[in-house]
Amino acid sequence: MANLDNRLYIVATPIGNLADFSYRAVEVLRSVDCIAAEDTRRARLLMQHYGIQNKLISVHDHNEEFKAPELVKQLISGGSIALISDAGTPLISDPGLPLVRLAKEAGVVVSPVPGACALVAALSASGVAVSRFSFEGFLGRTSSSRRALFTEKLNDSTTWVFYESSHRILACLHDLAAIFPAERKIAIAREMTKVYETIIYAPIHEVLSLVEDDKNMRKGEFVVIVESCTVKKVSEISAEQLRILTILLKKQTVKEAVALAVEITAGSKKLLYREALRITQAKSE
């Protein structure tokens, strides 16, 4: 693969195991005019492993705003560039968005070169339902900001995922356990594709105990997956709700009886009202 056209290639790199790198990705890194890397030191290790010799340019959180225009000028003039992050797929909680947006605005073709992604890898092996999920990236650094998000997500009907560091994983799990029922299941994945890869799927209280008791479980980068809240759909009222409703209907109007029954039993107003109509209709026949 030589003389690539003036495209910006978004190249996914291994998240741990260096063998998780596609032939196409290697050829793209060899053939582009330069490689824009989040961390040039880590990029060199990958390039040395695959015998890639190419020009490296540092593009990270602190310089991407002013680096992006320079790189887009190079693309417009006919150059080709590959963007890589420290590990995994660029822009997934990594730098690169200003460059991609500016390139698109300039009419430059942006092409993904798929590969490893910690988020997807963890989801695939977690045991948690993933037909629908949301991704929250890295959470706030304070307990209050995390708990605010957890409270918001308490009754979320879809699986949701976030990244966490080794420095905050224990405090984060304590915050999660303070908001969520102890039996709600979560998965944590650490050291993905590395020698000490660990993926655990268990109730929150079990995961918290494990991380508290084993210091090795507090090492590495973490993907945390929280199972959705499953709310049973009630299709009928209970025998006790029916008994109370029947008694109330002897002295109250349908509207009053239903309102009191809802207050006493915490039942569904819709179902209790439907049952009240059935009872009163049966009496009139």
> Which stretches are poorly predicted, pLDDT < 50 over at least 5 residues?
none
Which bin fits the share of residues in helices? 40-55%
- Which CATH class of the largest domain is shown? Alpha Beta
Structural class: alpha/beta
Strand order of the largest sheet: 3-2-4-1-5
Total helical elements: 11
Distance between the termini: 84 Å
**Count of distinct structural domains:** 3
Strand content range: 15-25%
Net shape: elongated
CATH-level-2 architecture of the largest domain: 3-Layer(aba) Sandwich
Order of helices and strands: EHEHEHEHEHEHEHEEHEHHH
CATH H-level superfamily of the largest domain: Tetrapyrrole methylase, N-terminal domain
Determine the CATH topology of the largest domain: Cobalt-precorrin-4 Transmethylase, domain 1
Describe this entry's structure for a reader.
The chain is of the alpha/beta class and 285 residues long. It folds into 3 domains: 7-116, Tetrapyrrole methylase, N-terminal domain (Cobalt-precorrin-4 Transmethylase, domain 1, 3-Layer(aba) Sandwich); 119-226, Methyltransferase, Cobalt-precorrin-4 Transmethylase, Domain 2 (2-Layer Sandwich), CATH 3.30.950.10; 239-284. It is built from 11 helices and 10 strands. The strands form 2 sheets. The protein has a 5-stranded parallel sheet with strand order 3-2-4-1-5, with helices on both faces. Helix 2 links the parallel strand 2 (34-37) and strand 3. Helix 6 crosses helix 7, helix 7 packs antiparallel against helix 8 and helix 10 (254-265) crosses helix 11. The protein is elongated. The mean pLDDT is 93.
